[in-house]
Amino acid sequence: MSVAVSIRDLEFRYADGPFCLRVDSLQIEAGARVGLVGPSGSGKTTLLQLVSGIELPQRGRIDVGELSVTSLTDAERRRFRIRRVGSVFQEFELLDYLDVLDNILLPYRIHGALQLDDGVRDRAIALAESTGIGDLQNRGVRRLSQGERQRVAICRALLPQPELLLADEPTGNLDPKSKDVVFDLLLQHASREGATLIAATHDHGLLDRFERVVDLASFVAEAGA
Amino acid sequence: MNRLYLAWRYLRHQRAKTTILVASMTLILYLPLALQILVDRTARDLRRRADETPLVVGARGGALDLVLRALYFEGEVPAPTDMAQVDRIRRGGLADPVPLHLRFRVGAQPVVGTTLDYFEFRRLRVAEGQWFGILGECVLGDSAARELGVATGGSVVTSPENVFDLAGVYPLKLKVAGVLEPTHGPDDGAVFVDVRTAWVIAGIGHGHQDLATADEQALLRRENGSATANASLVHYNEITREQAHEFHFHGDPAKFPVTAILAVARDSKSRTILSGQYLKRDEPCQILRPSQVVEEVVAKVVRIRGYVVVAVGLVSLGTLMTSVLVFLLSIRLRRREIETMRKIGCSRGTVASLVVWEILIVLLTGALLAGVLAAITGSFATPLLRGLLV
User: Fold this and answer.
1) Vertex B322, ends B320 and B326: CA angle to 5°?
2) How does residue B91 score in pLDDT terms, banded at 50, 70 and 90?
3) Which residues have CB under 8 Å from A180's CB, separation 6+?
């Protein structure tokens, strides 16, 4: 099986704190469903941001497929993120002034690497329908429930058909019922699109749904207060 | 287009903020623009009418009042001169005099007592009906007809100057003989009558029952071929063809009042000579070149505009700085949104361009509204500023 994400000799520190994340070696296979666990401050979010190229490590190498993310320029990393990575954030991070459909289409509106056309629009609508928010397309996101908002965020991450799906506490703000529904949707769509899913979570109830669980506590050399 | 769309959606979502910003931009752009248009158009219109009017003769007094009244039928009524001055100009042979009696009104419309020469001089044409032919007939300017709601064949009644003055001017019913073609100038709003009709309104001429045939009860006495009537004698407040011959004037026609005289000089030499005739110290009249008087007014207005522009500029600068501050603060408030976009793959340049689009939309909308308001202001410019001047 080919490797989707390869991390070697990684060391990362924030400029303004003692936190340090060290990962000697981590290989994630293409199409895998991987859970990242660890206590708060263990670096789950940081690792996801390093993989997606939002942050750059002081040392080490991260490869996504054949691409060395750590060697890319800032513009190339943005292009890589928009085309090949779908991100789902814990607090959804939707734009209040856009309706559901426009939030799903947002990646296509903010980067020239993705071309918005009727086909993309149809796909966005189909995604919204398949996640149960098809009838909310024109509704402002502030009028949605937490579960509905996270579905919008999932659709937004899936629309560019990324090969890598990164989810940071995707069920952290959801009630137990919504949590299961949203997580199932995430897994289903990741499988259907053939994407590799890496999800950071502190919810141990979800761990048996992953093919593999990585405990970040073992990688952290020093954790800040 | 995507960035424009996102900027538009954001501004639409922030309706209150956007409305305030657009209103501020509109004011910033509108005020100096409107001032410019207001002054330019007014100056242009004032100059055009003044340039078309070579000389104005009237009683000594305020030059501006005389010119504004003679040209635009607005402002204070200057002290009258008399028909002797009209005859003087005519006899002199240097200019053709056109008398103007400008004291009365029909509602808000000025009554202009003049002769048919005025219409020829101003190149006015009748759109419907005909010129006034007998006493008591009038010709309405285009907008006067609309304001008064009458057409040819209808009638209008002059307004009393003071309802409590029993010895004052009584209303006279005027028959509308015709309506002028629009000129887009002061003539549009006027009610033109023969100058003799104006004197009838003034009470210098009047009509009543023939004393020879009047009821004896209307007479105080009859002796030596003359009759003295009492107050019951019927006075006419309308002049019809049937009783027009019973209207007559008392007094010396040379002393009959006129407000101003337009002196249409034969040539520039005649104009100069005629002007010189009014330079004597004991001369009861003044002769004015409207263009000179108007130019003085325009110069004052332009000077005032300069001060106002500076004041408006300072206010606009303050408003602009506040608007910039609002945008900068909004960027701080939108840090989370910007961070989300960055995490998805958006560049700082794209974020900046979104803000630029937002500013452009606000600016362009403000400019558009300011343009529309300025255009509306422009159409009212001349009457508006002239109203302020008089």
Assistant:
1) 115
2) very high
3) none
Residues on B contacting A at a C-beta cutoff of 8 Å: 2-3, 5-6, 9-10, 12-14, 336-337, 340-347, 350
If we measure between CA atoms, which residue out of A67, A65, A69, A66 comes closest to residue A12?
Answer: A69
Q: Cβ(B160)–Cβ(B111) under 8 Å?
A: no
For A225, other C-beta atoms within 10 Å of its C-beta total 6
Rounded to the nearest angstrom, the minimum Cα separation between B26 and chain A is: 24
How far is Cα B323 from Cα A111, in angstroms, rounded to an integer? 28
| Residue among B103, B101, B138, B131 at smallest CA distance from B116 | B131
Amino acid at the residue B166: L
- Contact state of B5 with A111 under an 8 Å Cβ cutoff: no
| Cα→Cα distances A32→A4, A196, A206, A210, Å | 8, 5, 15, 8
Query: pTM for this one?
Result: 0.68
- Integer Cα distance of B78 and B67 in angstroms: 9
Q: What is the CB neighbour count within 10 angstroms for residue B310? A: 10
CA–CA separation, B165 and B335 (whole Å): 76
Contact A75 B340 (CB under 8 A): no
Q: For residue range B17-72, list pLDDT tens digits in order.
A: 899 999 988 988 888 888 888 888 878 888 888 888 889 999 998 888 899 899 98
CB atoms within 10 A of CB B317: 11
- Shortest distance between the Cα of B308 and any Cα of chain A, in A, equals 41
Q: Look at the block and give the residue holding tokens 């020829």.
A: B120
- Cβ-based contacts of A107 with chain B (< 8 Å): 344-345
Which residues in chain B are contacts of A116 at CB distance < 8 A? 2
User: Which of B44, B201, B211, B191 is closest to B118 using CA atoms?
Assistant: B191
**B255: which DSSP letter?**
G
